[in-house]
């Protein structure tokens, strides 16, 4: 029974990591790619680590490092993606041509707005 649970964790983690990788390659701009990297790849990595943790637990080894790694990935991956996206936005990386609304532009104070030359 425990082997089935470990297999589910590893297979679903691998599938989510694959979906995240495809999203990084196929989505149109850096902001959408950050979304794919953050959501599915993070959950995929966490499920893989959870499968590893469950395997070692079934062998009688409690690994606190794996649990700390899960917490670390959950805390740092979304923050890193947000910082990368904001940095790209501040440096003028263009949005996808079909983007209808730039919510991040509204969040800047007037004196810190990034320069956009081709906006209508």
UniProtKB/TrEMBL annotation:
<feature type="transmembrane region" description="Helical">
    <location>
        <begin position="62"/>
        <end position="84"/>
    </location>
</feature>
<dbReference type="GO" id="GO:0015385">
    <property type="term" value="F:sodium:proton antiporter activity"/>
</dbReference>
<comment type="similarity">
    <text>Belongs to the CPA3 antiporters (TC 2.A.63) subunit G family.</text>
</comment>
<protein>
    <submittedName>
        <fullName>Na+/H+ antiporter subunit G</fullName>
    </submittedName>
</protein>
<dbReference type="Pfam" id="PF03334">
    <property type="entry name" value="PhaG_MnhG_YufB"/>
</dbReference>
<feature type="transmembrane region" description="Helical">
    <location>
        <begin position="6"/>
        <end position="24"/>
    </location>
</feature>
<dbReference type="GO" id="GO:0016020">
    <property type="term" value="C:membrane"/>
</dbReference>
<keyword id="KW-1133">Transmembrane helix</keyword>
<keyword id="KW-0812">Transmembrane</keyword>
<keyword id="KW-0472">Membrane</keyword>
<feature type="transmembrane region" description="Helical">
    <location>
        <begin position="36"/>
        <end position="56"/>
    </location>
</feature>
<keyword id="KW-0050">Antiport</keyword>
<dbReference type="InterPro" id="IPR005133">
    <property type="entry name" value="PhaG_MnhG_YufB"/>
</dbReference>
<keyword id="KW-0813">Transport</keyword>
């Amino acid at each position: 029974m425990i082997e089935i649970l470990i297999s589910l964790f590893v297979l679903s983690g691998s599938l989510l990591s694959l979906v995240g990788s495809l999203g990084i390659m196929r989505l149109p701009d850096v902001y959408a790619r950050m979304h794919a990297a953050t959501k599915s790849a993070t959950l995929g990595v966490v499920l893989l680590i959870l499968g590893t943790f469950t395997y070692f637990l079934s062998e009688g080894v409690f690994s606190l490092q794996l649990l700390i790694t899960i917490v670390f990935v959950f805390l740092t991956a979304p923050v890193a993606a947000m910082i990368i996206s904001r940095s790209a936005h501040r440096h003028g990386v263009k949005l996808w041509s079909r983007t209808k609304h730039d919510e991040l532009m509204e969040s800047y104070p007037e004196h810190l707005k990034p320069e956009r030359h081709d906006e209508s």
